[in-house]
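Please produce the structure of this protein holding alpha-D-glucopyranose.
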Amino acid sequence: MYNHPLHQQINQAIQQQQIDIAGMDNLFFTRFIANATAIDALFHELYGKHPQQEVFFNQLINLIAESYTLRPAILKQRDEEKQTKGNWFLSNEITGMSLYVDRFCGNIKNLGSKLDYFKELGVNFLHLMPVFESPEGESDGGYAVSDFRKVDKRFGTLKDLQQLQGQMQKEGMYLMLDIVLNHTSHHHEWAKKAKAGDKRYQDYFYTYPDRSLPDQFDRTMPEIFPESSPGSFTWNEEMKKWVMTVFHNYQWDLNYTNPAVFLEMLDTIFFYANLGVDILRIDAPAFIWKQLGTSCQNLPQAHSLLRLIKQSVQVAAPGMALLGEAIVAPKEIMKYFGTGLYTAKECDFAYNATHMALQWDALATADIRVMLAAQHEILQKPYGTSWITYTRCHDDIGLGYDDYMIRNAGFEPFEHRRFLKDYYAGYYYDSPAKGALFSVNPKTNDARISGSLASLCGLEKAIEQQNEEAIEYAVRKILLMQAHSFFLGGVPMIFYGDEVGYTNDYSYLDDPGKSYDNRWMHRPVIDWDKNEKRNEAGTVEQKIFSGTRKLIEVRKKIFAVGDYKNLTWLTPHNIHIAGYLRTFEDQKFYCLFNFRDKHSYLTWFAFKQHGAVPDSLYDHWQDRKVSVGHDHEYLVMEPYQFLLLEVR
Ligand code: GLC
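Below is the modeled complex.
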């Protein structure tokens, strides 16, 4: 639908910025015109009733044009390269690592000298946990930002970050940073002004003179940190007002019903884009719109906001993909990829948190049926979008899949979840795991799980008990968990330290700024002497590091494991063995995982169900041929063994 006034508005903004639409900026102009109707519709859907809607809309158009003008030439060139490639981020060649700069190597400058380490492992994509200014002691690991544009001095300077980005770019590496969209620290300039009584900035947040609205909200809003920050509002004595604080009481929720807030944050998004961010992790997008009488999560307006961000970024910085960090139920997560006209036009990525939790379910129960009961929903993801697949990250593990999935697998949901929590917290008598319950809510009996990959896989206990066999099993489990997530489709994201098997670190208990949050147990401080042991044959570090490196190598060789909506689950002939088939044109790649601590048998017939099977398969994990048996014979898998079988 042609809209002349809108076109004129865009032309004006373009003239102001002296953008060369007939020459080198022609593609930008085309993108702008192509997306203009969507931008207009989404903006007015959200802010159409605001008295100054037209002023703000004009600001939006100008902001997009200005951000493009400010985009460095080298990034514009990269945008074009990425666009020519198509969906560059679906590739099997990208493997990520997520890390805290200070805990990994001190500061950003030092990180520049660690690029060889990533190269050695095969990692070519880094997620730097929040590096912008955040008050120590009230930082939520950097997710309480007091200045969105100033790198915290603990990590270095903005210049250091720019240098690192330049270095990474030269090495062909990708960078991910966070935008903490939902809230600011109460030390942010806006919050400070609000506290000082500035009405304009009080409207940047949700502030209330008394409890009447907060009480109504609290009735329907689930608590996120019920132990350390119960409720969703905090009294501020300076303002003499209640302020909405869904997460910690020092994280003030931004009010996106105010278009000024949206524009400020979009401007910040462009600032990050123009720093050279390849994938922007949008923190907690499920929470960005609030409405009385609802859970204030996953609301349709939150999706419209994300779509508006996506369409705007698509115009000014098309090389930057968006990851929506929504850790929500399987049905809800799909909507973050966009629906209807916006299918595959909202977030490019989401975390496959459901599957991550299901892997932990399968590992504890040695039974893959719950995992399979969830797949019909997980597989709904639209083509052109991708998952971040992972086993652990800086956060807890929530068992957020649906009750019916557990029931369909034949279990009772409450008891099943209780078993999993007991198992990983180490309460269950026979459990090798050593983790802890996080955010226990006595009102709902809800809890999540903390603990490092290695400790949850039993390595910590096994080392304590000096039990060599248990150590061996823990290493197998760690690699099985990683392999399962690496080949599933999506970009694998390793959590730093897991590549050499860091167990839980309990020193957070001595730090009052961290002791209230046991997620710190699985956020290690890297001891480079320990990491050096990756070069000593026979050490646990060497086994895990070389195994992880091998998995990345194999992944890079097999095109079919890219995320092209090309995954088929194998019929569960044996409930202990998870199997999926990845295909692309002539390539066929079977991945099989025995989640049990005993030998398991899989009928060779399982392969026949997916077309003709050759006489032999090639296992890329053990670099050997595997000959295929008759239908009445079995493939025997060792405890926690996995096979990466290419049909040749
Ligand atoms: C995200 C982060 C988490 C943080 C929360 C609040 O979920 O991953 O670490 O506590 O947002 O910002």
